[in-house]
Amino acid sequence: MLLKTQEKGAIATKVDRAIAQTHIEQYAEENKSVDPKNFYFRALSDATETILRYAFFLADLKKTHSKKEYKQVLSQYGFLGEEKKYLKVAAAFEKFSPDNLAPIEPATIFQLAQNSNKYQPVLDQLLDLAEISQTAVRELIKQHRTPKQPKPQKPSIWRRTKNGARYCQIPPIHEVDERTGTTLQKMIDEEGLLPQQIVAEAIALRLAYQQGRIKFVE
Asked: How far apart are CA 28 and CA 191, in angstroms?
């Protein structure tokens, strides 16, 4: 019985695909004279409008059905877990009608919806536009962006190990005469000390000089 059910399902799927393909071919045949540019831009507008209508449908479904029923419907159509981004679209554009926003391409719709708090001024300004267009929306987004402040170039010698411990790492020292490097290497070779020890002693001496505990003698 299970095998027969699976066979029926496979046959139904093939039939559905054949019907869909026939519709596509029929539509293409009927619209041969249509300018391809007009066709595709119109198709994009239709996609945006469909997304918005679907988002509003989901939001209404969630309000009018119990949580269990709502999830059952989503699961039935294989959309459980995919609905959140559409609910954000419905919340962001609840004051608009889908046909008003059709000129906006889908990615921009999702961009505004996913960051509705950030783009709330943009959404508010859209309500005041006499005619909404993709160009107008992009301009509003551009105006809303705050210029990034350049971060001060403050060098840091601190690094972290994988377990979170902090350690000091002195950046490379570039000198034409290589005096610091050659002097440090000579001390390492002659005294048998680690470079960390020598650097620590040098810093301790400089700190003592700054604090007045030692003085240069001519």
From this structure: 87
